[in-house]
Amino acid sequence: MSIDVVLGLQWGDEGKGKIVDVLAEKYPVVARFQGGPNAGHSLHFDGFKFVLHTIPSGIFRKGSINIIGNGVVIDPIIFRNECEELIKAGVPVKERLFISKKAHFILPTHRIIDAASEASKGKSKIGSTLKGIGPTYMDKTGRNGLRVGDALSSDFMERFINLKKKHIGMLKQFDYAYNAEENEKEWLDAVEYIKGYNLVDGEYFANDLIKEGKRILAEGAQGSMLDIDFGSYPFVTSSSTVCAGACTGLGIAPGKVAEVYGIFKAYCTRVGSGPFPTELNDETGEKLRKFGFEFGATTGRPRRTGWLDLVALKYTVMINGVTGLIMMKSDVMDTFDTIKAATSYIVDGKETRNVPYDTYAEVTPVYTEFKGWKKPLNTVKDEKDLPSEFMEYVKFIEEYVGVPVRIISVGPDRNETILR
Ligand code: GDP
Ligand code: IMO
Ligand code: MG
Q: Residue with the nearest Cα to atom 17 of ligand 1?
């Protein structure tokens, strides 16, 4: 048995939470492999809406096993709030959740450094979610981090104080007012709270489940265009959001990866700064934001909107070895007369179908136009009832990137999903 991966192919918020929740019916195990509370994954079912930040989107399924892998960074305070909300809703989180001891802690001072660093950048700020993600991964790769398993050792407090001191030293370079002790007590209490959960050697835990014949669904956070290596650097997050990150973030060998499901919206959004070639700063962009309710699930910030970018999509399909596409939110464009998708870029006066190295480069998208379907999609239950104009758009995308669309989502609810 093996693992299948679901990940975002654009700049995040593609609808990963919804799809993982839908697919979790068929997978006994769901695992998050990177990112942290910068993620906001929304789920809608039975008239309820939940937004998950750290906990995998399989948590609502009876009898499910949910893993927070070593590649994830955890803010104990956010984690506890999330658990308490789920428990209030009757979800037996403790039974269903397993946390790798190798996952790293986000300290209160990581969040302060994130804020100070962003403030110092002025106009060139990344637009971070300010959850402390960058500084935590810096400490991880810098070999200074505190891991969840460390909370079980007797010198945890000493190590915490040492790391905090190091952070206070770093903060001297910024002209930034802060209180290093703010939230500290709450944070330490929340660390105690986490100790009451199943803390496991995640790599053995996951591989043993595979050996038992259980199928694992790995749930990506963010999107491939925010990947630390392949995203629009430096306007990226600090983890490997691509398929390879599922292996390093869980301790599962590449040969065990079977299907790679790539999720994309029928248009594009981006929250935070950085290049966005197909961005629409006009009425159409406003319509996409309004009809798609494009406001951040974590920060509430309005998302930037634009047409589908097939050049970027083909690039992320390549990086991830996507075997099946999942197309989201087409229903948002139900009333559009025409729809556009970028099929090449003009860079330095030359046409190209490749994403350029220099993310600051002047990129002019070349568009292909499609006729709108002008019918509501969210009532469609079967592929054969989808409007022909819509299917033309789908077929074009499949041919351009060379991968079939396996699932079409036509609304936020679990039930508004067409499997092909
Ligand atoms: P994630 O971070 O990838 O899980 O995505 P988010 O939850 O941040 O953002 C996706 C938003 O789109 C959420 O508000 C979802 O409820 C909503 N959504 C998901 N799929 C669809 C869809 O097919 N149609 C519409 N209209 N909304 C959707
Ligand atoms: P999900 O999992 C969309 C963006 C931020 C910022 C950049 C770096 O819900 O798709 P960070 O806090 O990671 O240092 O921010 O990445 N970003 C996201 N955008 N969806 C996300 O997660 C994101 N997580 C981070 O807006 O531009
Ligand atoms: Mg999101």
A: 412
Per-position DSSP letters for 250-272, written without gaps between them: TT--GGGEEEEEEEEESSEEE-S
- The per-residue pLDDT for 299 is 83
Which residue's entry shows tokens 């139900």? 334
How far apart are the C-alpha atoms of 121 and 117, rounded to whole Å? 6
Contact 132, 104 (CB under 8 A): no
Choose, from 41, 53, 104, 167, the residue flagged as catalytic.
41
- CA distance from start to end of the chain: 23
Confirm or reject: Cβ of 221 under 6 Å from ligand 2.
yes
User: Are 89 and 82 a contacting pair, CB within 8 Å?
Assistant: no
Task: Say which residues have a Cβ less than 8 Å from residue 58's Cβ, sequence separation at least 6.
Answer: 20, 21, 24, 27, 29, 30, 64, 65, 66, 96, 217, 219
Work out the angle at residue 368's Cα, subtended by the Cα atoms of residues 363 and 372, and round it to the nearest 5 degrees.
130
Residue linked to tokens 């591989």: 207
Give the Cα-Cα-Cα angle 106, 108, 112 (nearest 5 degrees): 105
64 lines ligand 2 (CB under 6 A): no
Protein residues placing their CB within 5 Å of the ion ligand 3:
13, 40, 297
Look at residue 5 and give its three-state secondary structure.
Answer: strand
Please indicate, yes or no, whether the overall pTM of this predicted structure exceeds 0.90: yes
Mean pLDDT, residues 75-94 taken together: 97
Over residues 115-135, the mean pLDDT reads 95
Which residues make beta-bridge pairs with 70?
none
Relative orientation angle of helices 156-171 and 108-121, to the nearest 10 degrees: 10
